[in-house]
Structure formats: structure tokens, C-alpha cells
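Whiteboard transcription, Tuesday session. T.W. wrote the C-alpha cells on the left side:
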């Protein structure tokens, strides 16, 4: 009887390991809307470019991790605008806490290592300000 219980707990633990990776995935699409439209936007993380949206509205698929993304948008005749897209905790990360009891932290380690337990704002709205005439 003990063998069945241990086997069942092991199977449950393995099925829970990496839950966020399974349900949320390790990548995410971010859509950028600007006012006015037609801006060129770059996404930077840790001073490295990770994606470009050549003309807004548009989107890019990025790999998730624990670091924030700085979005910079430019358009002729307008000031550059930025948006800091914070890396937050994915909704299924709480399952890792429960699964951690059974798996000894394997689920949390898998999700943290792949970035699956993080998320960003999926839709970003940025307003650009018209450049003023220089005197």
C-alpha cells in the first residue's frame, strides 16, 4: 500500500513540476499602440535590444524572464517616449508553491529557470508628444 502512495505522490509531483511553463509558456506577445500611430519602437532588456516593432500598432513575441523591458518609441516630429514594462508574477505561479511541497521545489525551479513564472503587460499604450519649435 505504501508503494502505491509513494508512486502516486511522485507522479503528482512530476505532473506539477513546471506548471507555469506548461500553462503560461516561456514567451509572450507584447502589443504596442501609440498615439499617433506609425512610431518605431524598440524593446530593451538589460541594455540589449530584444525586439523591434517597426510601425505601431504592432506586436513582438519576447522570451519572458525576471528583468523589466524598456520600450522606446520614436516618430519624426515627436519627442521620444518610453514605457517600463515590469516583469511580474504569472497567475499560475501559486501552483508552484503548492507543487513545491510535493516536488521539493522542482516546479518552482523549472518555472523560474525558464521565465515561465513571469509576465509583462500584454498591451502597452504610449502617447508621443509633438516636438516644439526651437527658438
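and on the right, the sequence the group agreed on:
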Amino acid at each position: 500500500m505504501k508503494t502505491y502512495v509513494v508512486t502516486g505522490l511522485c507522479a503528482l509531483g512530476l505532473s506539477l513540476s513546471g506548471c507555469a511553463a506548461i500553462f503560461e509558456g516561456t514567451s509572450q506577445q507584447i502589443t504596442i499602440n501609440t498615439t499617433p500611430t506609425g512610431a518605431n519602437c524598440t524593446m530593451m532588456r538589460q541594455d540589449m535590444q530584444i525586439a523591434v516593432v517597426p510601425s505601431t500598432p504592432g506586436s513582438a513575441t519576447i522570451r519572458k524572464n525576471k528583468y523589466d523591458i524598456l520600450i522606446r518609441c520614436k516618430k519624426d516630429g515627436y519627442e521620444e517616449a518610453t514605457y517600463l514594462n515590469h516583469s511580474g508574477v504569472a497567475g499560475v505561479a501559486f501552483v508552484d508553491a503548492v507543487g513545491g511541497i510535493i516536488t521539493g521545489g522542482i516546479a518552482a525551479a523549472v518555472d523560474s529557470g525558464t521565465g515561465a513564472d513571469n509576465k509583462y503587460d500584454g498591451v502597452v499604450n504610449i502617447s508621443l508628444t509633438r516636438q516644439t519649435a526651437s527658438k
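Someone added at the bottom: The chain has one domain: 2-127.
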